[in-house]
Amino acid sequence: MSVNGQSVPGPQEPTAATQLRKAVVVGGNRIPFARTGGAYTKSSNQDMLTAALDGLIARFGLQDERIGEVAAGAVLKHSRDFNLTREAVLGSALSAETPAYDLQQACATGLETVLGLANKIKLGQIESAIAGGVDSASDAPIAVSEGLREVLLDLNRAKTVSRKLQVLSRLRPKDLAPDAPNTGEPRTGLSMGEHQALTTAQWKITREAQDELAFNSHKNLAAAYDAGFFDDLLTPYRGLSRDSNLRADTSLEKLATLKPVFGKNLGAEATMTAGNSTPLTDGASTVLLASEEWADAHDLPKLAAVVDGEAAAVDFVHGKDGLLMAPAFAVPRLLARHNLTLEDFDFFEIHEAFAGTVLSTLAAWEDEEFGRTRLGLDGAFGSIDRSKLNVNGSSLAAGHPFAATGGRIVASLAKMLHAKGQADGRPARGLVSICAAGGQGVVAILEAL
Ligand SMILES: CC(=O)CC(=O)SCCNC(=O)CCNC(=O)[C@H](O)C(C)(C)COP(=O)(O)OP(=O)(O)OC[C@H]1O[C@@H](n2cnc3c(N)ncnc32)[C@H](O)[C@@H]1OP(=O)(O)O
Protein backbone atom coordinates (compact mmCIF):
# COMPACT_ATOMS: atom_id res chain seq x y z
CA MET A 1 0.00 0.00 0.00
CA SER A 2 1.07 3.62 -0.46
CA VAL A 3 0.72 6.57 1.91
CA ASN A 4 1.79 10.05 0.86
CA GLY A 5 3.86 8.79 -2.00
CA GLN A 6 5.77 6.10 -0.10
CA SER A 7 4.98 2.45 -0.10
CA VAL A 8 4.44 0.98 3.35
CA PRO A 9 3.88 -2.69 4.18
CA GLY A 10 0.19 -3.53 4.57
CA PRO A 11 -1.12 -4.23 8.05
CA GLN A 12 -1.27 -7.98 7.53
CA GLU A 13 2.32 -8.27 6.31
CA PRO A 14 4.70 -8.60 9.27
CA THR A 15 7.35 -5.88 9.29
CA ALA A 16 10.90 -6.55 10.33
CA ALA A 17 10.22 -4.54 13.51
CA THR A 18 7.55 -6.96 14.71
CA GLN A 19 9.98 -9.89 14.55
CA LEU A 20 12.75 -8.22 16.54
CA ARG A 21 13.29 -8.18 20.28
CA LYS A 22 12.13 -5.20 22.34
CA ALA A 23 14.06 -2.00 23.05
CA VAL A 24 12.81 -0.58 26.32
CA VAL A 25 13.01 2.82 27.94
CA VAL A 26 14.40 2.34 31.46
CA GLY A 27 14.13 6.02 32.34
CA GLY A 28 15.44 9.46 31.60
CA ASN A 29 17.10 12.40 33.22
CA ARG A 30 17.61 16.03 32.43
CA ILE A 31 18.86 19.18 33.96
CA PRO A 32 16.13 21.84 34.28
CA PHE A 33 15.97 23.89 31.09
CA ALA A 34 17.05 27.54 31.38
CA ARG A 35 16.24 30.54 29.26
CA THR A 36 19.27 31.57 27.24
CA GLY A 37 21.34 34.26 28.94
CA GLY A 38 20.18 32.98 32.35
CA ALA A 39 21.41 30.36 34.82
CA TYR A 40 23.58 28.40 32.38
CA THR A 41 25.37 31.28 30.69
CA LYS A 42 28.68 29.93 31.95
CA SER A 43 27.96 26.28 31.09
CA SER A 44 29.18 24.63 27.91
CA ASN A 45 27.37 21.88 26.03
CA GLN A 46 29.88 19.45 27.45
CA ASP A 47 29.22 20.59 31.04
CA MET A 48 25.48 20.22 30.64
CA LEU A 49 25.52 16.88 28.82
CA THR A 50 27.92 15.47 31.41
CA ALA A 51 25.60 16.66 34.20
CA ALA A 52 22.57 15.03 32.53
CA LEU A 53 24.58 11.81 32.06
CA ASP A 54 25.84 11.77 35.64
CA GLY A 55 22.31 12.28 36.95
CA LEU A 56 21.16 9.26 34.94
CA ILE A 57 24.15 7.20 36.08
CA ALA A 58 23.50 8.04 39.74
CA ARG A 59 19.77 7.29 39.44
CA PHE A 60 20.26 3.85 37.91
CA GLY A 61 23.51 2.83 39.64
CA LEU A 62 25.58 2.79 36.43
CA GLN A 63 28.91 4.01 37.89
CA ASP A 64 31.80 2.50 35.93
CA GLU A 65 29.32 0.56 33.76
CA ARG A 66 30.29 -0.11 30.15
CA ILE A 67 27.19 0.88 28.20
CA GLY A 68 26.71 -0.52 24.68
CA GLU A 69 26.73 2.89 23.04
CA VAL A 70 25.95 6.52 23.84
CA ALA A 71 24.63 8.83 21.11
CA ALA A 72 23.74 12.48 21.59
CA GLY A 73 24.17 15.72 19.74
CA ALA A 74 23.87 19.47 19.69
CA VAL A 75 22.51 21.77 17.02
CA LEU A 76 24.83 24.61 18.00
CA LYS A 77 28.27 23.08 18.37
CA HIS A 78 31.73 24.58 18.79
CA SER A 79 34.32 23.39 16.32
CA ARG A 80 36.45 22.23 19.29
CA ASP A 81 33.71 19.68 20.17
CA PHE A 82 34.68 17.16 17.50
CA ASN A 83 32.88 14.33 19.30
CA LEU A 84 31.04 16.12 22.04
CA THR A 85 29.26 12.99 23.26
CA ARG A 86 32.47 10.99 23.66
CA GLU A 87 34.01 13.89 25.61
CA ALA A 88 30.94 14.03 27.86
CA VAL A 89 31.20 10.26 28.46
CA LEU A 90 34.88 10.61 29.34
CA GLY A 91 33.96 13.35 31.81
CA SER A 92 31.16 11.26 33.34
CA ALA A 93 31.10 8.37 35.80
CA LEU A 94 30.58 5.79 33.02
CA SER A 95 33.37 3.39 32.06
CA ALA A 96 35.78 5.05 29.63
CA GLU A 97 35.31 1.92 27.49
CA THR A 98 31.82 3.11 26.52
CA PRO A 99 31.73 4.07 22.82
CA ALA A 100 29.97 7.34 22.02
CA TYR A 101 29.18 9.47 19.00
CA ASP A 102 27.45 12.68 17.93
CA LEU A 103 24.40 12.83 15.72
CA GLN A 104 22.73 15.95 14.30
CA GLN A 105 19.14 16.09 13.09
CA ALA A 106 18.28 19.65 14.23
CA CYS A 107 15.46 19.70 16.79
CA ALA A 108 14.79 16.00 16.22
CA THR A 109 18.34 15.05 17.29
CA GLY A 110 17.28 13.63 20.66
CA LEU A 111 14.49 11.51 19.18
CA GLU A 112 16.69 10.32 16.30
CA THR A 113 19.33 9.11 18.80
CA VAL A 114 16.62 7.19 20.68
CA LEU A 115 15.39 5.53 17.46
CA GLY A 116 18.84 4.67 16.13
CA LEU A 117 20.01 3.14 19.40
CA ALA A 118 16.70 1.33 19.93
CA ASN A 119 17.15 -0.29 16.52
CA LYS A 120 20.62 -1.51 17.50
CA ILE A 121 19.16 -3.03 20.66
CA LYS A 122 16.33 -4.64 18.68
CA LEU A 123 18.89 -6.17 16.31
CA GLY A 124 20.93 -7.55 19.20
CA GLN A 125 23.97 -5.42 18.36
CA ILE A 126 24.01 -3.82 21.81
CA GLU A 127 22.24 -4.53 25.12
CA SER A 128 22.14 -1.02 26.59
CA ALA A 129 22.40 2.53 25.31
CA ILE A 130 22.07 6.14 26.37
CA ALA A 131 20.46 8.59 23.97
CA GLY A 132 20.48 12.31 24.51
CA GLY A 133 20.94 15.83 23.38
CA VAL A 134 22.14 19.19 24.58
CA ASP A 135 22.08 22.76 23.36
CA SER A 136 23.20 26.13 24.53
CA ALA A 137 22.27 29.30 22.73
CA SER A 138 24.09 31.15 25.55
CA ASP A 139 27.38 29.51 24.56
CA ALA A 140 26.63 29.59 20.82
CA PRO A 141 29.71 29.25 18.62
CA ILE A 142 30.68 32.53 16.96
CA ALA A 143 32.61 32.06 13.75
CA VAL A 144 35.07 34.53 12.28
CA SER A 145 34.47 36.13 8.90
CA GLU A 146 35.71 34.44 5.71
CA GLY A 147 38.37 37.18 5.30
CA LEU A 148 39.77 36.71 8.80
CA ARG A 149 39.68 32.91 8.43
CA GLU A 150 41.79 33.04 5.26
CA VAL A 151 44.28 35.41 6.89
CA LEU A 152 44.58 33.24 10.03
CA LEU A 153 45.19 30.08 7.99
CA ASP A 154 47.81 31.80 5.81
CA LEU A 155 49.41 33.28 8.93
CA ASN A 156 49.75 29.80 10.35
CA ARG A 157 51.55 28.68 7.19
CA ALA A 158 53.81 31.80 6.90
CA LYS A 159 57.37 30.91 7.92
CA THR A 160 59.06 34.30 8.18
CA VAL A 161 58.21 37.48 10.07
CA SER A 162 58.07 39.49 6.85
CA ARG A 163 55.67 36.98 5.28
CA LYS A 164 53.50 37.08 8.43
CA LEU A 165 53.35 40.90 8.26
CA GLN A 166 52.48 40.72 4.58
CA VAL A 167 49.57 38.35 5.34
CA LEU A 168 48.36 40.53 8.23
CA SER A 169 48.35 43.62 6.00
CA ARG A 170 45.45 42.03 4.06
CA LEU A 171 43.12 42.42 7.05
CA ARG A 172 40.32 44.98 6.68
CA PRO A 173 38.08 46.28 9.50
CA LYS A 174 35.07 44.45 8.02
CA ASP A 175 36.96 41.16 8.44
CA LEU A 176 36.78 41.57 12.21
CA ALA A 177 32.96 41.40 12.31
CA PRO A 178 31.88 38.08 13.92
CA ASP A 179 29.63 35.61 12.13
CA ALA A 180 27.00 34.70 14.75
CA PRO A 181 24.59 31.76 14.35
CA ASN A 182 20.89 32.50 13.94
CA THR A 183 17.66 30.60 13.52
CA GLY A 184 17.56 31.38 9.79
CA GLU A 185 17.08 28.75 7.10
CA PRO A 186 20.12 28.99 4.79
CA ARG A 187 18.08 28.35 1.61
CA THR A 188 15.42 30.99 2.21
CA GLY A 189 17.03 33.46 4.62
CA LEU A 190 13.83 33.40 6.66
CA SER A 191 13.91 32.59 10.38
CA MET A 192 12.02 29.59 11.77
CA GLY A 193 9.50 32.03 13.23
CA GLU A 194 8.97 33.74 9.88
CA HIS A 195 8.49 30.40 8.13
CA GLN A 196 6.00 29.35 10.78
CA ALA A 197 4.17 32.69 10.45
CA LEU A 198 3.50 31.85 6.78
CA THR A 199 2.26 28.35 7.69
CA THR A 200 0.17 29.67 10.59
CA ALA A 201 -1.52 32.11 8.20
CA GLN A 202 -1.96 29.44 5.51
CA TRP A 203 -3.85 27.19 7.95
CA LYS A 204 -5.79 30.17 9.36
CA ILE A 205 -4.72 29.51 12.93
CA THR A 206 -6.03 32.26 15.19
CA ARG A 207 -4.09 34.18 17.80
CA GLU A 208 -6.59 32.99 20.43
CA ALA A 209 -6.02 29.31 19.58
CA GLN A 210 -2.24 29.78 19.78
CA ASP A 211 -2.44 31.60 23.11
CA GLU A 212 -4.71 28.92 24.51
CA LEU A 213 -2.22 26.19 23.57
CA ALA A 214 0.59 28.18 25.20
CA PHE A 215 -1.50 28.77 28.32
CA ASN A 216 -2.26 25.03 28.60
CA SER A 217 1.43 24.20 28.21
CA HIS A 218 2.34 26.37 31.23
CA LYS A 219 -0.68 25.19 33.24
CA ASN A 220 0.08 21.50 32.55
CA LEU A 221 3.81 21.79 33.23
CA ALA A 222 3.21 23.66 36.50
CA ALA A 223 0.66 21.03 37.59
CA ALA A 224 3.11 18.24 36.69
CA TYR A 225 5.83 19.81 38.85
CA ASP A 226 3.37 20.29 41.72
CA ALA A 227 2.27 16.67 41.47
CA GLY A 228 5.91 15.50 41.69
CA PHE A 229 5.93 14.12 38.14
CA PHE A 230 9.47 15.39 37.55
CA ASP A 231 10.89 14.56 40.99
CA ASP A 232 12.86 11.62 39.60
CA LEU A 233 13.79 13.27 36.32
CA LEU A 234 15.64 16.41 37.20
CA THR A 235 19.19 16.94 38.31
CA PRO A 236 19.30 20.33 40.06
CA TYR A 237 21.93 22.31 38.23
CA ARG A 238 23.45 25.73 38.84
CA GLY A 239 20.75 26.61 41.34
CA LEU A 240 17.80 25.61 39.14
CA SER A 241 15.39 22.84 40.05
CA ARG A 242 12.57 23.85 37.67
CA ASP A 243 12.62 25.02 34.06
CA SER A 244 13.19 28.75 34.26
CA ASN A 245 10.81 29.56 31.40
CA LEU A 246 7.81 28.14 33.25
CA ARG A 247 5.32 30.85 34.16
CA ALA A 248 2.82 29.29 36.51
CA ASP A 249 1.12 32.69 36.80
CA THR A 250 0.60 33.38 33.10
CA SER A 251 -2.97 33.99 31.92
CA LEU A 252 -4.86 34.21 28.63
CA GLU A 253 -5.38 37.92 29.34
CA LYS A 254 -1.61 38.53 29.74
CA LEU A 255 -0.80 36.44 26.65
CA ALA A 256 -3.32 38.48 24.63
CA THR A 257 -1.39 41.69 25.41
CA LEU A 258 1.92 40.52 23.90
CA LYS A 259 3.08 42.12 20.67
CA PRO A 260 3.31 39.95 17.52
CA VAL A 261 6.93 39.24 16.59
CA PHE A 262 6.83 37.23 13.36
CA GLY A 263 5.03 37.72 10.08
CA LYS A 264 4.45 41.48 9.71
CA ASN A 265 7.30 41.90 7.20
CA LEU A 266 5.94 39.01 5.08
CA GLY A 267 2.43 40.33 4.65
CA ALA A 268 1.10 37.50 6.82
CA GLU A 269 -1.33 38.21 9.63
CA ALA A 270 0.98 38.60 12.65
CA THR A 271 -0.35 36.35 15.40
CA MET A 272 2.84 34.85 16.81
CA THR A 273 4.25 36.36 20.01
CA ALA A 274 6.97 35.66 22.58
CA GLY A 275 4.22 33.88 24.56
CA ASN A 276 3.16 31.41 21.87
CA SER A 277 6.72 30.82 20.52
CA THR A 278 9.44 28.85 22.29
CA PRO A 279 12.22 30.96 23.75
CA LEU A 280 15.88 30.30 23.04
CA THR A 281 16.88 27.82 25.76
CA ASP A 282 19.88 25.99 27.26
CA GLY A 283 19.66 22.42 28.58
CA ALA A 284 20.46 18.72 28.25
CA SER A 285 18.59 15.43 28.51
CA THR A 286 19.46 11.72 28.52
CA VAL A 287 17.47 8.49 28.17
CA LEU A 288 18.56 4.99 29.21
CA LEU A 289 17.51 2.29 26.72
CA ALA A 290 18.04 -1.44 27.07
CA SER A 291 17.04 -4.90 26.01
CA GLU A 292 14.55 -6.52 28.38
CA GLU A 293 17.23 -9.01 29.40
CA TRP A 294 19.74 -6.29 30.31
CA ALA A 295 17.16 -4.32 32.29
CA ASP A 296 16.12 -7.47 34.20
CA ALA A 297 19.73 -8.48 34.89
CA HIS A 298 20.38 -5.01 36.34
CA ASP A 299 17.09 -5.02 38.25
CA LEU A 300 16.00 -1.85 36.47
CA PRO A 301 12.48 -0.75 35.49
CA LYS A 302 11.03 -1.22 32.01
CA LEU A 303 8.71 1.72 31.40
CA ALA A 304 7.86 1.52 27.71
CA ALA A 305 8.92 -0.08 24.45
CA VAL A 306 10.18 1.99 21.53
CA VAL A 307 7.93 0.47 18.86
CA ASP A 308 8.96 2.25 15.67
CA GLY A 309 9.82 5.60 14.13
CA GLU A 310 9.61 7.45 10.83
CA ALA A 311 11.20 10.52 9.28
CA ALA A 312 9.81 12.79 6.57
CA ALA A 313 11.00 15.89 4.73
CA VAL A 314 9.08 18.60 2.87
CA ASP A 315 9.98 20.90 0.00
CA PHE A 316 9.66 24.21 1.85
CA VAL A 317 12.26 25.81 -0.42
CA HIS A 318 9.76 25.99 -3.30
CA GLY A 319 6.87 26.71 -0.94
CA LYS A 320 5.17 23.34 -1.47
CA ASP A 321 4.70 22.83 2.28
CA GLY A 322 5.51 24.79 5.43
CA LEU A 323 9.03 24.44 6.88
CA LEU A 324 7.87 22.67 10.05
CA MET A 325 5.13 20.50 8.48
CA ALA A 326 7.10 17.28 7.86
CA PRO A 327 5.49 15.45 10.84
CA ALA A 328 2.11 15.89 9.11
CA PHE A 329 3.46 13.42 6.51
CA ALA A 330 5.58 11.18 8.76
CA VAL A 331 2.78 10.31 11.19
CA PRO A 332 0.32 8.96 8.56
CA ARG A 333 3.08 6.79 7.08
CA LEU A 334 4.07 5.42 10.50
CA LEU A 335 0.50 4.72 11.55
CA ALA A 336 -0.31 3.00 8.25
CA ARG A 337 2.64 0.67 8.78
CA HIS A 338 1.08 -0.41 12.09
CA ASN A 339 -2.57 -0.33 11.00
CA LEU A 340 -3.30 2.37 13.59
CA THR A 341 -5.35 5.56 13.54
CA LEU A 342 -5.10 8.66 15.72
CA GLU A 343 -7.88 7.20 17.86
CA ASP A 344 -5.59 4.36 18.95
CA PHE A 345 -3.38 6.65 21.05
CA ASP A 346 -3.63 7.59 24.71
CA PHE A 347 -1.04 10.38 24.66
CA PHE A 348 0.17 12.79 21.97
CA GLU A 349 3.51 14.47 22.55
CA ILE A 350 3.71 17.04 19.75
CA HIS A 351 6.72 19.33 20.14
CA GLU A 352 5.59 22.94 20.50
CA ALA A 353 8.25 24.73 18.45
CA PHE A 354 5.57 27.36 18.09
CA ALA A 355 1.91 26.99 19.07
CA GLY A 356 1.18 27.55 15.37
CA THR A 357 3.27 24.50 14.43
CA VAL A 358 1.16 22.11 16.50
CA LEU A 359 -2.12 23.70 15.39
CA SER A 360 -1.16 23.77 11.69
CA THR A 361 -0.27 20.06 11.83
CA LEU A 362 -3.59 19.21 13.50
CA ALA A 363 -5.46 21.40 10.98
CA ALA A 364 -3.75 19.61 8.07
CA TRP A 365 -4.75 16.22 9.47
CA GLU A 366 -8.35 17.41 9.78
CA ASP A 367 -8.44 18.82 6.24
CA GLU A 368 -10.12 16.65 3.58
CA GLU A 369 -8.25 18.19 0.67
CA PHE A 370 -4.85 17.81 2.37
CA GLY A 371 -5.74 14.19 3.13
CA ARG A 372 -6.69 13.50 -0.47
CA THR A 373 -4.14 15.54 -2.40
CA ARG A 374 -1.10 15.47 -0.13
CA LEU A 375 -1.51 12.22 1.82
CA GLY A 376 -3.16 10.13 -0.90
CA LEU A 377 -6.02 9.13 1.42
CA ASP A 378 -9.77 9.01 0.74
CA GLY A 379 -10.40 12.00 2.99
CA ALA A 380 -9.04 13.71 6.11
CA PHE A 381 -6.40 11.80 8.09
CA GLY A 382 -8.23 12.44 11.37
CA SER A 383 -8.34 14.50 14.51
CA ILE A 384 -6.95 13.93 17.97
CA ASP A 385 -8.61 14.10 21.35
CA ARG A 386 -7.12 17.39 22.59
CA SER A 387 -7.32 16.24 26.22
CA LYS A 388 -4.53 13.76 25.37
CA LEU A 389 -2.18 16.41 23.97
CA ASN A 390 0.98 17.39 25.89
CA VAL A 391 -0.71 16.62 29.20
CA ASN A 392 2.35 17.43 31.31
CA GLY A 393 3.29 20.57 29.34
CA SER A 394 5.69 20.87 26.42
CA SER A 395 8.25 23.15 24.85
CA LEU A 396 6.32 26.43 25.10
CA ALA A 397 6.50 26.17 28.89
CA ALA A 398 9.64 24.04 29.44
CA GLY A 399 11.65 25.80 26.77
CA HIS A 400 13.36 24.18 23.80
CA PRO A 401 17.12 23.51 23.93
CA PHE A 402 16.97 22.14 20.40
CA ALA A 403 18.70 18.73 20.58
CA ALA A 404 17.60 18.11 24.19
CA THR A 405 13.86 18.26 23.49
CA GLY A 406 13.55 14.68 22.15
CA GLY A 407 15.01 13.18 25.33
CA ARG A 408 12.70 15.29 27.49
CA ILE A 409 9.67 14.08 25.56
CA VAL A 410 10.62 10.38 25.39
CA ALA A 411 11.46 10.21 29.11
CA SER A 412 8.20 11.91 30.10
CA LEU A 413 6.05 9.85 27.74
CA ALA A 414 7.61 6.58 28.91
CA LYS A 415 6.69 7.44 32.50
CA MET A 416 3.16 8.44 31.55
CA LEU A 417 2.65 5.21 29.60
CA HIS A 418 3.99 3.06 32.41
CA ALA A 419 1.73 4.80 34.92
CA LYS A 420 -1.31 4.26 32.68
CA GLY A 421 -0.45 0.63 31.90
CA GLN A 422 -3.38 -0.70 29.91
CA ALA A 423 -6.01 1.14 27.89
CA ASP A 424 -8.93 -0.58 26.14
CA GLY A 425 -7.41 -3.98 26.86
CA ARG A 426 -4.05 -3.20 25.19
CA PRO A 427 -0.83 -1.52 26.35
CA ALA A 428 -1.21 2.28 26.56
CA ARG A 429 0.23 3.90 23.45
CA GLY A 430 1.88 7.28 22.83
CA LEU A 431 2.85 9.23 19.72
CA VAL A 432 5.88 11.52 19.61
CA SER A 433 6.11 14.15 16.85
CA ILE A 434 9.03 16.53 16.43
CA CYS A 435 9.50 19.04 13.62
CA ALA A 436 13.02 20.06 12.66
CA ALA A 437 14.87 22.74 10.75
CA GLY A 438 15.59 21.97 7.11
CA GLY A 439 11.97 20.96 6.53
CA GLN A 440 12.27 17.63 8.34
CA GLY A 441 10.34 15.77 10.99
CA VAL A 442 10.84 12.65 13.08
CA VAL A 443 8.01 10.78 14.81
CA ALA A 444 7.76 7.64 16.94
CA ILE A 445 5.39 5.27 18.70
CA LEU A 446 6.01 4.12 22.29
CA GLU A 447 3.97 1.50 24.14
CA ALA A 448 3.58 0.87 27.86
CA LEU A 449 5.31 -2.07 29.51
C1 LIG B 1 15.24 24.28 15.32
C2 LIG B 1 14.41 23.21 14.78
O1 LIG B 1 14.97 22.25 14.21
C3 LIG B 1 12.90 23.25 14.80
C4 LIG B 1 12.23 24.13 15.82
O2 LIG B 1 11.96 23.75 16.94
S1 LIG B 1 11.87 25.68 15.32
C5 LIG B 1 11.94 26.68 16.77
C6 LIG B 1 13.30 27.24 16.94
N1 LIG B 1 13.29 28.27 17.94
C7 LIG B 1 13.22 29.58 17.61
O3 LIG B 1 13.17 29.94 16.45
C8 LIG B 1 13.20 30.54 18.77
C9 LIG B 1 12.08 31.53 18.55
N2 LIG B 1 12.03 32.48 19.65
C10 LIG B 1 12.62 33.70 19.60
O4 LIG B 1 13.33 34.02 18.66
C11 LIG B 1 12.39 34.65 20.75
O5 LIG B 1 12.09 33.92 21.92
C12 LIG B 1 11.19 35.63 20.46
C13 LIG B 1 11.60 36.53 19.28
C14 LIG B 1 9.92 34.87 20.12
C15 LIG B 1 10.89 36.47 21.70
O6 LIG B 1 12.07 37.06 22.14
P1 LIG B 1 12.03 38.22 23.27
O7 LIG B 1 11.31 39.40 22.74
O8 LIG B 1 13.42 38.34 23.75
O9 LIG B 1 11.10 37.55 24.37
P2 LIG B 1 10.92 37.91 25.88
O10 LIG B 1 11.66 39.16 26.25
O11 LIG B 1 11.17 36.71 26.67
O12 LIG B 1 9.38 38.17 25.94
C16 LIG B 1 8.79 39.38 25.47
C17 LIG B 1 7.72 39.78 26.48
O13 LIG B 1 6.74 38.76 26.52
C18 LIG B 1 6.52 38.38 27.87
N3 LIG B 1 6.15 36.96 27.85
C19 LIG B 1 6.75 35.96 27.15
N4 LIG B 1 6.10 34.80 27.39
C20 LIG B 1 5.08 35.08 28.23
C21 LIG B 1 4.08 34.29 28.85
N5 LIG B 1 3.97 32.96 28.60
N6 LIG B 1 3.20 34.91 29.68
C22 LIG B 1 3.29 36.22 29.91
N7 LIG B 1 4.23 37.03 29.36
C23 LIG B 1 5.11 36.45 28.54
C24 LIG B 1 7.85 38.62 28.54
O14 LIG B 1 7.68 38.79 29.93
C25 LIG B 1 8.27 39.92 27.90
O15 LIG B 1 7.57 40.98 28.52
P3 LIG B 1 8.35 42.36 28.85
O16 LIG B 1 8.72 42.90 27.48
O17 LIG B 1 7.30 43.12 29.56
O18 LIG B 1 9.52 41.97 29.65
UniProtKB/TrEMBL annotation:
Residues 320-447 form the Thiolase C-terminal domain. It holds the Pfam family Thiolase_N. Keywords: Acyltransferase, Transferase. Residues 172-195 are annotated as: Disordered. CDD domains: thiolase. Residues 24-293 form the Thiolase N-terminal domain. InterPro entries: 3-ketoacyl-CoA_Thiolase (IPR050521), Thiolase (IPR002155), Thiolase-like (IPR016039), Thiolase_C (IPR020617), Thiolase_N (IPR020616). It comes from the Bacteria. Belongs to the thiolase-like superfamily. Thiolase family. This is Acetyl-CoA C-acetyltransferase. It comes from Arthrobacter humicola.
